[in-house]
Amino acid sequence: MHKAHKFFYLSVTFVILSVFLSVHNPIIKGLFGSINAIILFTGLVNAILLIISILLVDIAIKRPKQTSDGLRKWVKVWPWIILIVILYHLFSGLLLFGIL
């Protein structure tokens, strides 16, 4: 397996972890007592995970010769999926505070 494939799959793993660490996760709600602690924890962890994911997909984009045709399509679409996940986290945090 080429390194570009590994970087892309790691990026997918980090995005999936980020979605599971949403503010609506009942396990996280049980760990932290206040809404502020939930928002602070999930915000920091998700920011770190998504930044790492962006860096990894950037490395995969910079190595087009090492990716297959099918994966190349996903690598080009993946930054938009990361943007959708970021927007999901923003809206879920705003819903938790009751702003939306």
User: Which range does the strand content fall in?
Assistant: under 5%
Rg calc: 16 Å
Multimer state: single chain
Helix content: over 70%
Order of helices and strands: HHHH
Walk me through the structure.
There is one protein chain. The chain is an all-alpha fold. It is built from 4 helices and no strands. The protein has helices at about 5-20, 25-30, 35-60, 70-95. Helix 1 runs antiparallel to helix 3 and helix 3 (about 35-60) packs antiparallel against helix 4. The protein is elongated.
Quick overview of this protein structure:
It contains 4 helices and no strands. By secondary structure, the protein is mainly alpha-helical.
List the helices and strands and how they pair.
Elements: H1 3-20, H2 26-31, H3 35-61, H4 69-97
Helix pairs in contact: 1-3, 1-4, 3-4
